[in-house]
Design brief:
- By secondary structure, this protein is an alpha/beta fold.
- It has a single domain, classed as 3-Layer(aba) Sandwich (Rossmann fold).
- It has seven helices and six strands.
- The strands form two sheets. It has a four-stranded parallel β-sheet, with helices on both faces. Strands 3-4 form a two-stranded antiparallel sheet.
- Helix 2 packs across helix 3 and helix 3 packs across helix 5.
Length: about 200
């Protein structure tokens, strides 16, 4: 999928365009993470599969989607170094108990096995927050403030942060910033799908 090299936002691209594309948002408000890989745009039927995986624990869909992401990652990292470790966006224990599992942790385990990259449990969500889906960008930032804490030494590590979908990138920005402040040397973001902006 062609998109911004930093946040994976789908972009209209001509065959003559430079492959190292950066969207306007990342140019004007650069994220703390370096690169984002996404296997799909968050549109039907992929969005339906992700919903079944996330909310109905459809692990067949989860394995398929994770395998597709692994294939995309092999292309994206053909000419760059793989991360030292993989870490998942954490769920608060109350949300995980209600849902029955953490979909990001499941994707992380699948990718760790398939790509032979160690799995680290770097972060904990220490504060229960309302669901991000229906919030504006400003509300998302406020909702996530001081929600995470570092649990594992990340010093000098190149990390891949795993989530199911990137919408505004607020969660990825917050967690990446925390990991970098804790000493990580680089954070990349890996997601199953990236939400396109209206009209793209």
């Amino acid at each position: 999928m062609t998109g911004c090299q930093q946040c994976a936002l789908p972009l209209p691209v001509s065959p003559e365009a430079d492959s190292a594309l950066i969207c306007g948002e990342c140019l004007h408000n650069p994220p703390p993470f370096t690169h984002t890989s996404a296997a799909f745009r968050y549109l039907p039927p992929i969005s339906d599969q992700i919903t079944r995986f996330k909310h109905q624990r459809d692990l067949v869909a989860g394995r398929f989607l994770s395998t597709q992401l692994a294939q995309q990652l092999r292309l994206d990292y053909e000419y760059q170094a793989w991360p030292d470790a993989i870490t998942a966006v954490p769920l608060h224990w109350q949300r995980q108990l209600w849902r029955g599992f953490n979909q990001a942790a499941y994707i992380s385990r699948q990718l760790s096995l398939e790509l032979k990259i160690p799995l680290l449990h770097c972060c904990r969500r220490k504060k229960a927050t309302v669901k991000q889906q229906q919030l504006s960008r400003k509300q998302r930032l406020k909702n996530l403030r001081q929600s995470f804490e570092i649990m594992t030494n990340a010093k000098d590590l190149h990390l891949a942060l795993i989530d199911d979908v990137m919408t505004t990138g607020t969660t990825a920005r917050e967690l990446s910033s925390i990991l970098l402040k804790a000493g990580a040397k680089r954070v990349d973001v890996w997601v199953l799908a990236r939400t396109p902006t209206p009209g793209t």
